[in-house]
What we know:
Elements: E1 6-10, E2 14-21, E3 35-41, H1 43-53, E4 57-65, H2 69-80, E5 83-90, E6 96-103, E7 108-110, H3 122-127, H4 129-132, E8 137-140, H5 146-159, E9 162-165, E10 183-184, H6 188-195, H7 202-213, E11 219-223, E12 229-233, E13 236-240, H8 253-266, H9 271-285, H10 298-308
Parallel strand pairs: 1-4, 1-8, 2-6, 4-5, 8-9, 9-10, 10-11
Antiparallel strand pairs: 2-3, 6-7, 11-12, 12-13
Amino acid sequence: MAKIPRIAVVGSANIDLTTFTDRFPKPGETIFGQKFDLGFGGKGANQATAAKLCGASVFMVARVGSDLFGPATIENFKKLGIDTTHVKQVPGVSSGVAPIFVESSGQNRIFVVKGANDELKPADVDAAADLLKTVDCIVLQFEIPLETVYYTVAFARKSGIRCILNPAPGQPIDIKAVEGLDYFVPNESEAETITGMPVKNVEDAKKCAEKLLSYGIRRVIITLGANGSLLAGKEGMEHLPAFPVKSIDSTGAGDAFIGSFAVFLGEGLPEREAVRRANLYAGLSTTGVGTQKSFYDRARFDAEWAARSKS
């Protein structure tokens, strides 16, 4: 039986508020929408959910608001079986929310209000230090303050804990602050934003990965959507193609990749095998609508892997 990995996600938790409408209202106009959907999101929470569904013990370090969404978010984590010891409400601050407006044509407009996510500070990482020192892997993203990301990377390095950083949403960073990082996992646009190098194909991705490795990062994985992913280290690079799926909604696929990859790696699988499995897990997440709602549990994934892995 595979080892059960212990994974901590230091990151964001949002509420997605999606309104579907025939058209957007004009300034000063009120119109009726068609339907509304409320869902739990945020890159950190999504990655934690994927890791839990894949069979890991998962611990969340996050901040939520003192509004209606704060307790609901904590309750959702508990329902999933994610440890919430270090998920706290911040007085006088809203939870992170993403109001999303979708026209019938599929065009959307999204506002992200970070709210309590901006209140996750290095001191909160220190407060969770005893727990963090017991995990096999720490997972991070960029929906919390960069100072907290850098601090946590340094904490993981000093403590000898594997660390996976998903630099999403993409933004300029102090690249020296992530020197020695175990895994840096951007998609094409995030890699381009950080390096200034276009990533339009696999060859571009290889050049970009080479630049990132030159900064002292140990491993770079650039996810390429329907093109799979590129695994790069100092000893070489390999393009690992995607598995064919009938994609409906790609929202959250990157989060599915990160969360599942952390689990497969933590179970002791060879790196290449862990990436291949994460490619499939991410692909399968696009066959349903939404983020957390579309993630496979381990039994469903294992059945798909058994059927497809020989291809």
